[in-house]
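Q: What changes when PBG is included in the input?
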Amino acid sequence: MTVLRLGTRRSALATTQSSWVADRLRSLGHDVELVEVSTQGDRDTTTPLAQLGGTGVFVSALREALAEGRVDLAVHSLKDLPTAPDPRTTVAAVPVREDARDALVARDGLTLAELPAGSTVGTGSPRRHAQLAALGLGLEITGLRGNVDTRLAHVHDGRLDAVVLAAAGLRRLGRADEVTEWLDPLQVLPAPGQGALAVEIRADDAVTAAAVAPLDDPDTRACVTAERVVLADLEAGCSAPVGALAEVVEGMDGAELSLRAVVAAPDGSADLRRSLTGAPEEAAALGHRLARLLLDDGAADLMSTSTSTDRSVTERAQ
Ligand SMILES: NCc1[nH]cc(CCC(=O)O)c1CC(=O)O
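A: The predicted holo structure follows.
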């Protein structure tokens, strides 16, 4: 029997996600071998991600390995996949989604509302930064990079009062017990695709396509399709202050797709939230309509508002 070579990054989260997919393929009767692929985003953990070219840096090395035939499949956090398709590859399966929300890990079991004004909250994500600032709680939001372990350590050793991370990553790594608040999407909307995985293969590889097809979850695929269309239409990358979440809900005439999105000024001084409901089969059309609504109401101007950090960098440079 042929062995499916699954390319994975070395981080704890990447290997956990890859092993989860490998185990599901094995339970379907396939032989799977994990092949480690190193990416620039893993080697350089100090440069801000935006400067490295966004979370796409995690993806490109895996795509090269696929295109060159060194591996047959790669498992990505879907939210890290650039919205522009790569003609050499295809997303052959989107498995059932983990918790899509963001989560707060704060000192002393505190929630957002309980953190005193001036508390330091670490996040490297402009989307989280903008939405946390927009809550108006007087939190001091500071940049932070590194793997999940490194980020949690900042709270446990007292360098920060709190950090915000993806609930999915914490659950997958068995660290959900450290969460002090699951952030309600009414307050903080997750990144488009957050909590979902993408199983990517070579576009012309029918054998691997057939092997991974049973892993696809149509509801999750509809949700992430709608969310990513919003992101793409706003011409925003993974580092933009854009959140989106779609959910399949039971409506009066069967399943409905409920989609909401937020666009925020990078400093959180203003934000714009809109939502729509439609048919799951028309996920992409729903995403286009919601993006149109946001753009008509000024989304492009909001996103390009300069931030206080931008200003302080310029001042220092002068
Ligand atoms: N940006 C890095 C990244 N990419 C995927 C996840 C978590 C898993 C997921 O969102 O599916 C994380 C960590 C985080 O945002 O806390």
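Observations recorded in class: The CA atoms of residues 44 and 212 lie 32 Å apart.
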